[in-house]
Amino acid sequence: MPTLQETASQIRRDIVRMVHGAQSGHPGGSLGCTDYFTALYFKIMNHNPSDFQMDGKGEDLFFLSNGHISPVFYSALARSGYFNVAELSTFRKLDSRLQGHPTTHEHLPGIRIASGSLGQGLSVAIGAALAKKYNNDNSLVYCLMGDGELDEGQCWEAILSAPHQNADNIIATVDWNGQQIDGSTDKVLYLGNLEEKFKVFGWETLILEKGNDMDEVVASLEKAKSLSGKGKPVVILMKTAMGAGIDFMEGTHEWHGIAPNDDQLAKALAQLPETLGDY
């Protein structure tokens, strides 16, 4: 059984190979969120990859709001058993089920909403969380957003709505990497004190200082689970480095949506042990 760290290394290899193969895609945020996806899909969530059902009754659900980081999502789904790992080679190709942003009409197992139009994911996740309550389903709903995405007004409507609707079975996470497509989040649109904002809006708020440390990610998600069902929705403000795991990509918005060339791919793969076998 591979460790979570070994799985994360393979997922990072998948990400850079997928984006390189298509010569398009978003490696930066995908690499930064790899540890989160690995912890979620291989440790934390109660889910059933072998029998995917859209309604997800009796299992935890995940919604990716910042859909442009689809490479990490697809790899986590494939590596955890939702579909054949070999299909990763079709990323962003014509007629592929693995489009640049996740969609539902291709019926790719693990995908419950089309995402990538930023700002919408948390609203959908809240709806799913309320549906679970109405159906007496004690499973949890997880949602990932980007910090740049919080520029969208719909996010704040949803953030207000969750406590009002008593959606205390939702665990939202913000990828707090401080970068977005045009530069730093502080320069594009200063978000202020996110921790205090979520608290004032009625959320149980956790700060994850090391979002690229697997042990810290697991501990934070387990803490969030322990706080669920106690009257407040839970949010994890997860500090990550865009491009984490590859030294020349790390910490800059420049790799938000650029594919590596052949030399850059080779340099990246040299830093990432192949642990589960490349597709």
* Largest sheet, spatial ordering of strands: 1-2-3-7-6
Task: Indicate the low-confidence ranges by residue numbers.
Answer: none
Binned strand content? 5-15%
The total of helices stands at: 10
The helix content, as a percent range, equals: 25-40%
Number of strands: 7
Shape: globular
Mean pLDDT: 96
The SSE order reads HHHEHHEHEEEHHEHEH
Instruction: Write down the Rg.
Output: 17 Å
Largest β-sheet summary? 5 strands, parallel
Kindly name the structural category. alpha/beta
Distance between the termini: 18 Å
Description:
This protein is α/β, with parallel strands linked by helices and 279 residues long. The protein contains ten helices and seven strands. It has helices spanning 4-22, 27-32, 34-44, 70-79, 121-134, 153-164, 185-188, 194-200, 214-227, 262-270; strands at residues 61-64, 141-146, 170-175, 179-180, 183-184, 204-208, 234-238. The strands form two sheets. A five-stranded parallel β-sheet has the order 1-2-3-7-6, with helices on both faces. A two-stranded antiparallel sheet has the order 4-5. β2, α6 (153-164) and β3 (170-175) form a beta-alpha-beta unit. The longest helix is centred in the first third of the chain and has 19 residues, at 4-22. The protein is globular, with a radius of gyration of 17 Å. It starts with a helix and ends in a 9-residue tail after the last helix. The model has no long low-confidence stretch (mean pLDDT 96).
